[in-house]
Design brief:
The complex is a heterodimer of chains A (256) and B (246). Chain A is mainly α and 256 residues long. Chain A has one domain. Chain A is 84% helix and 0% strand. Chain A is built from nine helices and no strands. In chain A, helix 8 runs antiparallel to helix 9. Chain B has 246 residues and is α/β, with parallel strands linked by helices. Classes of the chains: A mainly alpha (256), B alpha/beta (246). At the A-B interface, helix 5 of A face helix 2 and helix 3 of B.
């Protein structure tokens, strides 16, 4: 019962943060410099992690599919299976999980530290809005970065699929690229790509909410960071189902 | 106490609790133009909560807070923003933005609210820093400053927009005598410029040096009031509080 009430409180708090951001945009815009700074932090700084994750996940999945399907003569299906898996689920979900671990944790601890040291209060006391200076640039940076990072993961994962397909599974490179091209329709592309916007909110909103509501000093910052990452991961998994379901409702035969 | 100057801020029957813990049951006082009011009380008596309520960082349960024509107890967050330009809050620890240099910290309110150019803003910042004996500190980060220097930068940042009322939240807490004197001198500089202020502290010597009037907060209410001259009387309740005999 307590867990349900706490979950509702967190959901309500995150909704409040989101609505305050919308309301804030009516009065003030965050500065381009703040957005670019945060986009660098969220996007560019995450590139090494995304490169390693995208490349290695593509390699290992290709190997698993290839070796698993080989006894049934299913190796030629590997490029299609990988293309669909990567575009529909793997790239958006893996990128979002990496984002939750790296960016969500970073944002929650940074905002939490600012809350504990009264820097957020100081902004308000100076007649300025922390939403304009702190919250909105981070949320916008996530909304800008996640789709691009997701696309990058797709490219890297499929590149590694091609490499492993040729070197380990003995497939022809032209055959692999043709299969990639013919497997991915606009629907598949959008299905994964649009999810990344939702996942960006799933990471940014918990980070901002828990960061702004830190209590009990530095211990509270650690707790808020953990909660932000856990909440983001849970939201990513749950929202993934509903977003997938939503796409199938609006376009039932898209992936056939 | 009768006061000839115009009333700037009026707190009336303020009541505030956190959960079941009652902090203030009935707090009332006024601050007049150009006056420095000292607010003393034991640890946990809610002195800082009163200051935070005046700037909208805490919501009060009941009572009224009037600042000029504004009813501070009943305005929403959006309406607070212009009022906060007129009420400066000097945080106990300075609350400087640790990722920004001293100059960037001071540019923040100027760029948000004033129409000064960048050159004019930087000139003003240097002037204000020099007034509180902070020379060549513009490019330093807060972590490179001592506690006393951080508090003085916090003081400059809070007052750089020329507010009408300054709220000092234990500005000398945790400082050595030299830094305490520096802060006291900085507050006297602000006072000489005609700023009204509320000074919350345990530091009796500084309170007597800078305040025109001192009130004592105990068990959620104002229990005594005195001028610094009246505190020379041996058995005055505020003096007894400071000396720990009451």
């Amino acid at each position: 019962m307590i867990l349900i009430l706490r979950s509702l409180e967190v959901l309500g708090g995150m909704t409040q943060v989101f609505l305050k951001c919308i309301a804030e945009l009516r009065y003030r815009r965050p500065s381009i410099k703040d957005i670019l700074d945060q986009t660098y932090e969220v996007g560019i700084s995450s590139l090494p992690l995304i490169v390693v994750m995208g490349f290695s996940s593509g390699m290992v999945m290709t190997l698993q599919f290839g070796l698993g399907l080989e006894p049934f003569g299913g190796k030629p299906y590997v490029p299609k299976v990988m293309a669909l898996s990567v575009f529909l689920e793997l790239a958006p979900v893996f990128t979002a999980l990496m984002g939750a671990a790296r960016m969500g944790a970073g944002m929650a601890s940074e905002i939490g530290s600012m809350t504990v040291t009264q820097q957020i209060d100081a902004m308000r006391a100076l007649g300025t809005s922390p939403y304009q200076k702190i919250i909105l640039p981070r949320i916008i940076a996530c909304l800008l970065s996640f789709p691009i990072l997701t696309l990058l993961t797709c490219v890297l994962a499929l590149t590694s699929t091609a490499i492993i397909g040729v070197t380990e599974l003995g497939l022809d490179l032209l055959f692999i690229t043709q299969k990639f091209y013919s497997s991915i329709t606009l629907w598949e592309f959008l299905s994964g790509f649009l999810k990344s916007f939702g996942f960006a909110l799933c990471v940014a909103l918990p980070a901002c909410y828990f960061g702004l509501n830190v209590k009990d000093g530095t211990r509270g910052v650690g707790r808020a960071t953990t909660m932000a990452v856990v909440t983001a991961c849970v939201l990513i998994f749950i929202s993934d189902y509903f977003m997938t379901k939503f796409y199938w409702v609006i376009y039932p035969y898209g992936s056939q | 106490m009768a006061h000839s100057k115009q009333k700037l801020l009026s707190v009336h029957q303020l009541r505030k609790s956190f959960g079941s813990k009652l902090i203030h049951k009935d707090v009332s006082f006024d601050v007049h133009q150009g006056e420095c009011l000292g607010l003393l009380g034991g640890s946990g008596s809610g002195k800082s909560v009163i200051l935070r309520s005046m700037i909208g960082l805490e919501k009060i349960d009941s009572g009224t807070i009037e600042f000029k024509e504004h009813q501070l107890h009943s305005i929403n967050e959006e309406d607070w923003l212009p009022i906060r330009k007129q009420i400066a809050y000097v945080f106990q620890n300075g609350a400087l933005f640790d990722s920004l240099t001293v100059e960037e910290n001071l540019l923040y309110p100027l760029q948000s609210h004033s129409s000064l150019s960048l050159t004019e803003s930087k000139k003003l910042i240097t002037t204000r820093l020099n007034e509180v004996d902070l020379f060549d500190t513009e490019s330093l980060y807060p972590s490179e400053l001592s506690g006393g220097m951080q508090k003085r930068v916090g003081l400059v940042r809070a007052t750089i927009l020329d507010p009408e009322l300054i709220l000092y939240d234990e500005p000398t807490a945790g400082l050595d005598p030299k830094n305490t004197n520096n802060i006291r001198d900085s507050i006297l500089v602000m006072k000489s410029k005609g700023y009204s202020s509320i000074f919350v502290s345990h530091d009796m010597a500084t309170a007597i040096a800078v305040c025109d009037r001192i009130i004592l907060l105990r068990e959620g209410s104002i229990v005594a009031e005195a001028t610094p001259q009246e505190l020379k009387i041996q058995n005055h309740p505020i003096r007894q509080f400071i000396e720990g005999t009451q």
